[in-house]
Design a protein that fits this description.
Length: about 775
């Protein structure tokens, strides 16, 4: 059995998988495996209740129990039975997760076509940035997303294409030209398309896969893309604007969705950004003066358009594909642009005044904090820049860039950020705070002034999603405690449920290590973390386990700084050398390439039998997106409780806002946030029911009820009293015993006892 189904063995089974169709409360569900887990069946039932009620759902499903295929099977079956239901919009965090979803959907679709035939035909595709989809030889070679976007616009912008009619030397994108020539006939045949499939199809037809995918969103049954395409207003207004209300939206792995929402509406400005923005304005002024001499009519036409207010009515939304307004759709003023910024030269003068004000505000010696309303009032009295005018900053900037026919968009990112900032600070008075810091408190000797417009209310960004679509499903393996998410997101879900994991053997072994062999407490509390005894005991814990645990181990720390410090001290004390007698050591860094190389070598060390320990950081890339399944992760150690940096002024402001607005206590939110990160880290170890691994919470604070109770139930149900408050030598003893039991051959037939067949579903009154 794989993570999602049972494999038939034998040469007679060419198709490799046996499938089932069953009836769930009157709905025929097509499921591409012979058996189904009880929790999958329960999950589908709750999901169906949410869809029937045309409401939102919050569902916690343990990792490795087939959450993705359960979602896809139920919702696509629901679409088949209810043609009035719109498309499935499946949101993932990363491109690899997107590819996994589409691979599962391909498997499901094979069965549907076998069983129902043409009636089951569907179109599903993944959508990502140009960087991941472009097939133009020179553009695709660009390294950053911004440079790919800019180079693409140089070849596809409407004004570039118009000029090419008179000047054949102007380079265009052949793939985009072929796509445009085909027009409305540029369609995908039914099928499931990954990003690679779209690139292959694009090369075969000579069409641009990025613009084809964007065009096909109106026709598909299932679209899989990033959270930002719905949550970030700049992107959602460009990509997801036309989605119908009847769509079913799924946010998968959504345990951090509140942070994603906050980041979408926050802007940081540093000194170098403002300096670059100043150079951008000078360049734009030169271009305006040049256009006055060569093509003054274009500037006049733009002025007339702005007088008519057409900028707000969609006349400026050309296929040239600029990002949308950073404010939420309902908060954008639907009226003409103010008179004092209609002319290009007046707008640039306005921007210059605003920029000088920002530079002056950034030149501080101590921290300043104020509300957006106070900031705007001070700005108006100081440089005569009013809040209402600021609200139009981004739209006016976009209009000017199109009028000047600028395609080097990456070069103008700094001034675009300033326009973003202006629009947001002019639009919102509540749920935001402005904080100006002259330096990072952790490095006070290094001047690094930053002006932060921070969103404090996650519900602001996701509110349009809940209001627009009739069913939004938020799901993950780590959503505990479930009662906090409705408050954070300001939503009333019709279904809120957490599911247990049914196991035939105890393949999960969570335990709490609180002290060393010398019985001194272990913790990363601020007053204890630098204690030599604590550091030594943590090192001894890792060293002892590295001698007992086979293959791969993963060790998570609370921060990069603490990880660097503790590894250095382990090296000085000879502990690192002791660990390396048993396993090779690999370390995550803040460099993506270095970390990818370390991960690759870690896997090679596990594959060849040498074994490895991977040192990583909670909240890092590895903690969020990398699975350590099978022999790559037989044990995960969470060293400490990964609280956020509690002296962060933005965090303090958010805590105060949550307390006043949603009555969420500071301690409750901080503990909830830290424990969900810890659960996410240890959850990396188990990715299927045939897998096994240990989850070690190494900090005395995990022994408290208020910490443990915030862990998902599928973890706490396996955390027995005998595995609490353990010393490092007791942990090693439990590990030996657990690994010895897990080393026994896994009985496939015993594993099937925790599975439901079609016949069993029929006996339960659910079979068809």
């Amino acid at each position: 059995r794989r993570s999602k189904g049972v494999r038939r063995k034998g040469p007679w089974c060419a198709r490799a998988w046996t499938k089932m169709k069953f009836n769930l409360d009157g709905l025929d569900v097509y499921f591409p495996y012979e058996y189904i887990y009880p929790e999958q069946y329960s999950y589908m039932r709750e999901l169906k209740h949410a869809l029937d009620a045309k409401g939102h759902g919050l569902l916690e499903m343990p990792t490795g129990t087939g959450k993705t295929i359960s979602l896809l099977s139920l919702i696509t079956s629901y679409q088949l039975a209810h043609p009035e239901v719109g498309k499935l919009v499946y949101c993932t965090r990363t491109v690899p997760e997107m590819e996994k979803v589409l691979a599962e959907l391909k498997l499901l679709q094979e069965y549907r076509l076998e069983r129902i035939g043409k009636r089951a035909q569907m179109i599903a595709l993944g959508l990502s940035s140009r960087k991941n989809m472009c097939i133009h030889p020179s553009v695709a070679e660009e390294r950053s997303r911004e440079s790919v976007d800019a180079k693409c616009r140089k070849l596809t912008s409407s004004w570039v294409r118009v000029k090419s009619v008179d000047d054949p030397d102007i380079e265009l994108c052949d793939f985009f030209e072929e796509y445009e020539k085909t027009g409305a006939e540029a369609l995908l045949p039914p099928g499931i398309y990954t990003l690679q499939d779209l690139r292959v199809f694009g090369r075969k037809k000579g069409w641009c896969p990025y613009f084809l995918a964007r065009h096909m969103i109106a026709f598909v049954n299932v679209v899989v893309y990033s959270y930002q395409y719905l949550v970030d207003p700049k992107v959602s207004q460009m990509v997801s604007k036309e989605l119908e209300r009847e769509c079913i939206v799924v946010f998968d792995e959504a345990h951090n969705i509140d942070n994603v929402c906050i980041e979408a509406l926050s802007v940081n400005l540093r000194q170098q950004t403002l300096d670059s923005a100043g150079r951008n304005i000078s360049k734009l002024k030169s271009k305006v003066n040049l256009m006055k001499q060569k093509d003054a009519q274009r500037l006049t036409d733009e002025y007339n358009r702005l007088v008519s207010g057409l900028a707000q009515q969609g006349a400026l939304t050309a296929p040239d594909d600029w990002l949308g307004n950073p404010a939420l759709p309902n908060d954008i003023l639907r009226e003409s642009v103010p008179g004092n910024i209609r002319r290009a030269e007046h707008f640039l003068t306005f921007l210059s005044r605003f920029l000088e004000y920002l530079k002056k505000r950034l030149n501080v010696r101590q921290v300043e904090s104020q509300s957006p309303r106070s900031f705007v009032q001070h700005c108006a009295s100081d440089v005569m820049v009013e809040g209402r005018t600021l609200r139009f900053c981004y739209d006016r900037f976009t209009s000017l860039m199109k009028t000047l026919e600028i395609v080097d968009t990456d070069e103008y990112t700094p001034i675009q950020l300033v326009a973003d900032f202006g629009t947001l600070v002019g639009t919102y008075t509540k749920g935001f705070i402005l904080i100006i810091e002259p330096f990072d408190e952790r490095m006070p000797s290094v001047p690094d002034p930053v002006l932060q417009l921070a969103c404090l209310d996650a519900s602001l960004a996701i509110r349009p999603v809940f209001e627009k679509f009739q069913s939004v499903i938020i799901t993950s393996g780590t959503l505990s405690p479930l009662d906090l998410y409705p408050k954070l997101l300001n939503v009333n879900p019709v279904v809120v449920q957490s599911f247990q994991m049914t196991l035939t053997r105890e393949c999960i072994c969570p335990l709490v290590a609180t002290r060393g062999m010398d019985h001194s407490a272990m913790s990363t509390k601020f007053d204890m973390r630098d204690d030599p005894g604590v550091i030594r005991n943590y090192g001894k814990l890792v060293a002892e386990l590295s001698a007992v645990i086979p293959d791969g181990m993963v060790c998570f720390f609370v921060s990069y700084a603490y990880m660097d410090s503790i590894i250095q001290q382990w090296h000085d004390k000879g502990i690192l050398e002791e660990i390396m007698k048993h396993k090779l050591v690999f370390i995550e860094t803040q460099d993506v390439v270095e970390t990818s190389l370390a991960l690759d070598n870690f896997r090679r060390a596990c594959d060849c039998g040498r074994g490895g320990v991977f040192f990583s950081v909670a909240r890092g890339k590895v903690a969020e997106g990398i699975d350590f399944d099978r022999h790559y992760g037989r044990c995960v150690i969470m060293i400490g409780v990964p609280f956020q940096y509690t002296l962060s002024r933005i965090l303090r402001a958010r805590l105060e806002y949550l307390r006043e607005t949603f009555q969420i206590k500071e301690s409750d939110f901080l503990s909830f946030d830290a424990v969900r990160q810890a659960a996410q880290c240890v959850g990396r170890v188990i990715r299927s029911k045939s897998d096994y691994g240990m989850m070690i919470f190494a900090d005395k604070r995990y022994n408290r009820h208020e910490k443990r109770d915030k862990l998902p139930k599928w973890i706490t149900s396996h955390l027995i009293d005998a595995h609490l408050n353990l010393s490092t030598d007791m942990v090693a003893h439990v590990a030996r015993d657990f690994m010895r039991r897990m080393a026994q051959p896994f009985d496939i037939h015993a594993g099937q006892k925790s599975l439901l067949s079609k016949e069993q579903l029929m006996q339960m009154g659910a079979g068809a």
